[in-house]
Fold:
Amino acid sequence: MATFERTGGRRPDELRPISFEANFAPHATGSVLVRYGSTQVICAATIEPGVPTWMKQQGVKGGWLTAEYSMLPYSTHERKARDINKGRLDGRTVEIQRLIGRSLRAAVDLDKLGQNTLWLDCDVLQADGGTRTAAITGAYVAARLAVQKLLDGGRLRESPLIDSVAAVSAGLFGGNLLLDLAYLEDKDAEVDFNVVMTGQGRFVEVQGSGEESTFSQEQLGNLIALAQKGLRELSALQAAFLARQLLAT
Ligand code: ADP
Structure:
């Protein structure tokens, strides 16, 4: 196994520097700019009265949660055209926004949301790998800030949040187990996992694939364990940031 130097001398099991900047989009009910190293995603949570027509038709009670994801044209080295100008969402966008929606639904009791829709808009400002994982971690923080605003304003009587949720990638690169892959690592990784977990330590989703490669059961276990390590740290960082933020407001 070749030894592998990570940018900035990062250890194989080390997250990139993680940070949150609250109220990045002040018109949203709650918002945050989340950074996983050079990857930066604006996550905004907006609560709108009403639920989709299909829910009313099918008599489904409670509220709804939905997510949208996009990469801003200047988020990549080469300009990426907006999906709207191509006339359709690309498959990757659809896959990622559905993943964000599923992940956040694991943290929310939709019954307690009332007849409201919680929108989670995740826009990638700078892409350097792991944009979907940063989007999930940031979307939870934005949702928590939005819920607090609604509780304080009397628009919600109890919090619909039942847990927190965060996500991280783990992969095999040159036979090495790596946590939280940056673009250059992700691009050439043999195996790439995205893992979503709640703050209480329960899995929401595990996406793992060999890219022109395969992995053993032992490697599978090691990849999950590595992701769990990162997720415990991310969950603690979310909690610490939110505690500071909610105390200050
Ligand atoms: P993720 O960002 O969740 O890791 P992918 O594995 O699909 O998602 O992409 C990995 C990285 O590749 C992105 O974070 C970004 O840096 C880069 N990337 C993805 N799509 C494009 C694109 N259309 N143009 C340029 N770079 C892209």
